[in-house]
Fold these 2 entries.
Entry 1:
Amino acid sequence: MKLTFLGTSAGSPTAQRNVSSIVLDVRQERGRLWLFDCGETTQMQMQKAKFSLSKLEILFLTHLHGDHLFGLPGVLTSRSLMQNQSSLILVGPKGIKQFIETVIEISDSWLTYPLNIIELEKDCTVFEDNLFRVEAKLLQHRVPCFGYRIIEKDLPATLNIDKLKQDNIEIGSLYSDLKKGKTIILDDGRLINGLDYLGQIKKGRKLAILGDTIPCEASIELAKDVDVLVHEATQEHALADKAIARGHSTTTHAATIAKQANAKKLIMTHISPRYSLHDNDKLVSEAKNIFPNTEIATDFSTFEI
Ligand code: ZN
């Protein structure tokens, strides 16, 4: 599982940073890509990062402000031109359905694949299968804005085939009992403990990708004990009043949430255009005063989870 930031600027693009979009690369786990937010130029950023639109499985929007949304019509309609016509799930706050239907109708465009739109109005589980669960919670911004908690389910322990062979144990019909770690009497009278032949359960990873917000309880709940928290840090802390007035957070706010939530790592993004890349060290060191394991995202930076 990998995160790649396609855009890290707040409000409008700069020469150094495009507007919000993040790829969660779950190709290794499920062969697909998940996208979080879709600011303008996202599809070109995807091409530059060598991500195919056809691999998109779920597109999550945190909120409907333009810097998180205006790339969406292009991504959806360009995807109709691709060979692979797999269905797509679009998750976002109420209003996203009307936005898409209006754009498609007025621009005389069309989609050639099934688009399943899930509109959010309150906290809920937005997706679940045997590998992942994604929960959404309402944050505190100027418009309804959601944060997402992505939970990879634990992988069951695998059988140690070599050890079974060494002990001359024929797996055959015992397979499911051994996988459950049961105690079994073999045909030759031996009593074996299935747990002796099971490896470790592989703990699933957890991450939180939050939209625009002032510091709030929901952020802490979403980020509780996560491996990675992605949090906006629009301003330096000297501009805290300005940030809060606009529904945003500072570096210090983001770091405080990471600390309160007991996250393992914080990645800050959604950086005001007032800052150039030269300011990264200053912004990171502000956050590190509170939460040492902090990094700041730049466009195309990638993080293994
Ligand atoms: Zn916003």
Entry 2:
Amino acid sequence: MQNLMVTGGAGFIGSNFVRYMLQKYAGYRIVVYDKLTYAGNLDNLKDVQRDFGARYAFVHGDVCDAAAVRAAIHQHQVDSVVNFAAATHVDRSLMEPDEFIRTDVFGTHVLLEAAKAFGLERYHQVSTDEVYGEVLEGRSRETDSLHTRSPYSASKAGGDMLCIAYYTSFDVPVTITRGSNNIGPYQYPEKVVPLFVTNAIDDQPLPLYGDGSQMRDYQYVVDHCEGIDVVLHQGEIGEIYNLGIGAETRNIDMTHAILDILGKPRSLIQPVKDRPGHDRRYALDVSKIRALGWEPNHSFEEAIEDTVRWYVENEWWWRPIKSGVHYQQYYQQQYQGREV
Ligand code: NAD
Ligand code: DAU
């Protein structure tokens, strides 16, 4: 495994993964294949282009375009694919599910067909803890059945099931990781942490859904990338690995942590109408990936501290996004008149 194609590599986690892998492995070449949707941003890879230009290439393309996918694999002599490409925001999946089903299900199928046709060494699917559905008690294990509740999680589950099908039916060498909520540099400010941090910097309200008691396992993005690397090199083909800290934080506590780090008042919290079908809690059993030797380098407290600092120091990255027409329209549609 030396020539990786990272689909969705211009997004949040994908770009962190590309940087991590090129820094760690001097012998690797990476081609990022990305459609550059609103969430894809070449600014995320600016330093990668500068520091690793000789081992990095970018191809603008859609994972649903089978001919373009195959051309990129052929041209860059790709031996393995790591698939991050997806429509990823739960709230948008409630507004416009089509794109989720198209990219997250059909796009995965296109990539699996290409992996089969080229006899790739590995196809890795980056999945999510959301496929288990909300878990009010206990922890989800990789063998648990899936109880998806949003168009996003249902689409991701469809992608996972196709991966297992291609492994079982065609021996495509598949691995899957199911990660919990990532936070860190380059996350599009529609997701709660970058949204709240950047709003708080500007003394704008933080729209907290419902009573704020929902829980997420917020993990630092580079730890997640390291976990994917561990599975790529030590994971067993055909296996699924949960990937997270394994400890949950209530949204209200995450919000207080952000405000405290920034020295901003709690009066900035604006309770708003809850997300329809809002999953109350995700909780992963992470013993399987820990048995491979992986463990997170950041606690929640360290992850949120580093994340807040990055947004404070990198206004050049998020201000143009937040002042753009697309973002402004989305924000209005999503939050206007939602106060309770
Ligand atoms: P993101 O929204 O920041 O980035 C998605 C990337 O995929 C963008 O660069 C976008 O341009 C690209 N893309 C979208 N549709 C495409 C298409 N049809 N063809 C090619 N490229 C396309 O997402 P993220 O938060 O970095 O998530 C990456 C992956 O990790 C997703 O598969 C997501 O389901 C999974 N995941 C995310 C989290 C999280 O907390 N963010 C947690 C667990 C798993
Ligand atoms: O669990 C992994 C998943 O985490 C990934 O698969 C998804 O791609 C990613 O978007 C994320 O999904 P969530 O729905 O958990 O993330 P989000 O940042 O949208 O919301 C986190 C929590 O914060 C959730 O309980 C809803 C709440 N929230 C969110 C927003 C956007 C608010 O209270 N206010 C908000 O404005």
